[in-house]
Design goal:
Belongs to the type-B carboxylesterase/lipase family. It is a single chain. This protein is an alpha/beta fold. It has a domain at 1-328: Rossmann fold. The chain is built from 17 helices and 16 strands. The protein has helices spanning 2-5, 8-20, 148-152, 165-168, 182-197, 215-225, 253-264, 278-281, 292-296, 315-320, 340-345, 353-356, 369-375, 384-408, 440-443, 458-476, 516-522, and strands at 33-36, 39-42, 44-46, 49-56, 80-82, 89-90, 102-103, 108-114, 124-130, 156-160, 203-213, 234-238, 330-335, 414-419, 493-497, 507-510. It has an 11-stranded mixed sheet, sandwiched between helices. Bound molecules: 2-acetamido-2-deoxy-beta-D-glucopyranose (NAG) (5 copies).
Length: 542
C-alpha cells in the first residue's frame, strides 16, 4: 500500500479527481463537528481555523495501566466529546505554565483544520508534529507548536502527547526482552488513530507527513525504523534522530535508585529497592516518583532503551537489509549552534571539559577521551561551559544528523538545512544565537506560535512567513523537494535558512563546510553507540 501512495503520479491523479467533485454543503462553521470512530467531536473556530483540542486517542495510563502498552480509546461517553480545551500533559517534572498540568491520563491529540465554510472539496494534506523535551518533558499544548498557520494554508495539523521519563521507559529488569518503551508505543497508537480518523476532518490519509523536533525528531526516526512499509508521504527530523540518544542506565539501576528515594521519602510501598516489581510500584501515586533528585536531573536516566523491538542498536545494518522506508522523502537539519543552550542546562557539570565528557549527561562514552580532548580547543569558545555545550550539540544533534545522512542520502530522497536565525527572544535565555529549539516556531509560521515570545519584530514574523511558505509547499508535495538540491553523503548541498540579512532567501552551502569534526571524531564511533552507562559509577551524576 505504501508503495502506491508514495507514487507521485497516483497521488496527483487522486487529487485531481477529488477537486473535480462537487462541494458538499458547509456545516455550521461556528461549532465545527467531526464524527470519528469514538463519536462526535465538537470543536470551535479560532483565527479562521477549526480547532479540536484534547481528543483522547488512548485510555488512561494511570494506576494498573502504568507501564503497559496504550489501549485504543473506547467510545466517548454518550458518544460525544467537547474538544474545546487542551487535555492534560503527560506526567513529568513540571514548572511554569507553558503546558497544561500533568496527569497519567494524558494520551490526547489536537487538530487544526481550515475553517469548514472555506473547506476545499479536495482532501487535504496532513502534518503531524511531535514535540521535543529530551524524552522527559514537554507537551502538545505549548503555544510554539500549534496548527493555526498550517490550517490557514490548507494543511491539517495534528500534535499529540506521549509518555515521558520514568512513566515511559522505566527500564525495569522484568521488561527485558519485551517492547518496553511505552512512549514509542504511544506514538505508534497516535499515528494509527490519525490514519484511521483524519479523513473525517477532511484530511487525506495518503498525504500524511510526520515531523518532530529534538526528542520528537528521535520519535520520528524511531517510527521510520519500525515501519519499513509506511503510509507516510514524507518526514522531517528537526535536530535529532535515532543516534541522538539520550544515554540510559543499565536495566534496573535507575529504577532501583528511585524506589530507594521514594522509600526514604516515606512513600508507602509493599516492596523494597531490592525486590520491587512493576506491579508493586503501580500502587504508588504519580507524584510519588517525583523525588527530590528526580526533580533535579535524575529523570534523564529514563530514556528509551535499545529493546531491539522499538529501538535498535544496528541502524546501518538495518538500512542495508531494507528494514527502513528508503523511498520516503525526508528533510533533516540542525540549528547552527545546537549545543549553546546545553552549556546552560548542564552549567554546574560542564565547567571542566575533561570531567564533563565522562558524565552521564554528556553521553559521550562512545568516543575515546583522547579524541574528544584533541577535537575541542578552549581558545575557540567564550567559556569552558560553551565548549562543553558544543560537544553536546555535536554528539546529540549535529553529528547524529551528519552520520545518518551519509547512510540515507546515498539512496533516500533526503534534504538537509542549517538554521541561522539569531533572535534573543526565541529561547528562554537571551544571547544564545541560533541554538537548539529556536527554529521551531518559525517552521510553524509564527503568529500564534510566537505568542509566548517577548517583543517579536516584523522581521521575525517575515522570516516565519518565509519559512512556513516553503515548508507548507513541501508538505503538500514532499517528493518535489523543498526548493533546494538533495543531499549527498559526506559533502553535498545544504540549505542555510534564516541567515541574518538574507531572511527571504535559501542560501546554498555544502555539508562539507560544517562536518569535518563530525566526520573525523564522531562518525567512526557511532557504530559503538549507545554505550549503556551506569550513572551511579560516573563522576558528577547529580
Ligand atoms: C480571517 O479571514 C478574514 C477574511 O479573509 C481576514 O480579513 C482576517 O485577517 C483573517 N484573520 C486571521 C487571524 O487570519
Ligand atoms: C517535584 O516536582 C513536582 C512537580 O512536578 C512537585 O509536585 C513535587 O512536590 C516535587 N517533589 C519534591 C520532593 O520536590
Ligand atoms: C520518614 O519517617 C521517619 C520516621 O517517622 C522520619 O524520621 C523522617 O523524617 C521521614 N522522612 C521524610 C522525608 O519525611
Ligand atoms: C578537571 O577534571 C579533571 C578530571 O576529573 C581533573 O583531573 C582536573 O584537575 C580538573 N581541572 C580543573 C581545572 O579543575
Ligand atoms: C547573534 O546576534 C548577536 C547580536 O544580537 C551577536 O552578538 C551574536 O554574535 C550573534 N550570534 C551568532 C551566532 O551569530
Amino acid at each position: 500500500m505504501g508503495f502506491f501512495f508514495h507514487s507521485l503520479g497516483l497521488v496527483t491523479t487522486i487529487t485531481a479527481l477529488v477537486v473535480a467533485m462537487p462541494c458538499e454543503e458547509a456545516e455550521d462553521f461556528h461549532s465545527p463537528r467531526v464524527r470519528v470512530e469514538q463519536g462526535l467531536v465538537e470543536g470551535f473556530v479560532q483565527s479562521n481555523t477549526s480547532v479540536f483540542l484534547g481528543i483522547p486517542f488512548a485510555e488512561t495510563t494511570a494506576d494498573e495501566h502504568r507501564w503497559k502498552a496504550p489501549k485504543p480509546i473506547r467510545k466517548f461517553p454518550n458518544g460525544r466529546l467537547e474538544a474545546t480545551a487542551y487535555g492534560p500533559s503527560c506526567a513529568q517534572v513540571m514548572s511554569g505554565t507553558s503546558i497544561t498540568s500533568q496527569s497519567e491520563d494524558c494520551l490526547n491529540l489536537n487538530v487544526w483544520t481550515p475553517r469548514q465554510d472555506k473547506h476545499q472539496c479536495a482532501k487535504l494534506p496532513v502534518f503531524v508534529f511531535i514535540y521535543g523535551g529530551a524524552m522527559v518533558t514537554g507537551g502538545s499544548s505549548n503555544a510554539q507548536w500549534q496548527g493555526f498557520n498550517f490550517a490557514r494554508n490548507d494543511v491539517i495539523y495534528v500534535n499529540f502527547n506521549y509518555r515521558e521519563s520514568i512513566y515511559a521507559s522505566p527500564n525495569a529488569p522484568e521488561l527485558q526482552g519485551k517492547a518496553q518503551n511505552f512512549g514509542i508505543l504511544d506514538v505508534e497508537l497516535a499515528m494509527k488513530w490519525i490514519y484511521d480518523n483524519i479523513e473525517a476532518f477532511g484530511g487525506d490519509r495518503s498525504r500524511i507527513v510526520l515531523g518532530g523536533h529534538s526528542s520528537g525528531g528521535v520519535h520520528v526516526d524511531d517510527y521510520l525504523w519500525t515501519h519499513p512499509e509506511t503510509f507516510l508521504a514524507g518526514a522531517i527530523e528537526l535536530s535529532a534522530n535515532a543516534l541522538s540518544g539520550p544515554a540510559y542506565a543499565p536495566a534496573g539501576v535507575a529504577l532501583s535508585e528511585v524506589v530507594q528515594q521514594m522509600l526514604d521519602a516515606n512513600v508507602t510501598l509493599d516492596c523494597t529497592a531490592e525486590d520491587y516489581t512493576l506491579d508493586c510500584l503501580r500502587a504508588a501515586d504519580t507524584y510519588a516518583f517525583q523525588t527530590k533528585s528526580f526533580n533535579s536531573s535524575l529523570n534523564t536516566w529514563f530514556a528509551p532503551a535499545m529493546d531491539e523491538i522499538t529501538r535498535f542498536s544496528n541502524y546501518a545494518d538495518r538500512f542495508i537489509k531494507g528494514h527502513y522506508p528508503k523511498s520516503l522523502p525526508l528533510i533533516v537539519g540542525n540549528s547552527d549552534q545546537e549545543g549553546e543552550i546545553f552549556g546552560y542546562v548542564y552549567n554546574s557539570e560542564n565547567t571542566n571539559f575533561s570531567s564533563w565528557i565522562r558524565t552521564f549527561d554528556a553521553d559521550l562514552a562512545f568516543v575515546p577521551t583522547d579524541d574528544l580532548l584533541a577535537a575541542y580547543d578552549e581558545a575557540n569558545y567564550a567559556s569552558v561551559s560553551s565548549m562543553s555545550g558544543a560537544s553536546y550539540g555535536d554528539a546529540r544533534f549535529l553529528c547524529a544528523t551528519d552520520s545518518l545522512l551519509d547512510l540515507r542520502a546515498a539512496e533516500q530522497p533526503t534534504w538537509i538545512y542549517r538554521w541561522f536565525g539569531n533572535y534573543s527572544n526565541a529561547l528562554a535565555i537571551p544571547n544564545l544565537g541560533p541554538s537548539h529549539g529556536s527554529e521551531v516556531p518559525f517552521f510553524h509560521g509564527g503568529n500564534e506560535c510566537f505568542s509566548l515570545l517577548d517583543g517579536v519584530t516584523e522581521d521575525e514574523q517575515q522570516l516565519a512567513d518565509f519559512m512556513h511558505r516553503w515548508f507548507v509547499a513541501w508538505v503538500k508535495n514532499p517528493r518535489a523537494g523543498p526548493g533546494w538540491e538533495p543531499a549527498r553523503p559526506v559533502n553535498g548541498p545544504l540549505a542555510c535558512l534564516g541567515v541574518p540579512g538574507h531572511e527571504d532567501e535559501i542560501i546554498t552551502s555544502a555539508t562539507g563546510v560544517y562536518n569535518s569534526r563530525c566526520q573525523r571524531v564522531y562518525k567512526p564511533n557511532y557504530l559503538k553507540y549507545p554505550v549503556v552507562q551506569n550513572p551511579l559509577l560516573l563522576p558528577q551524576n547529580t
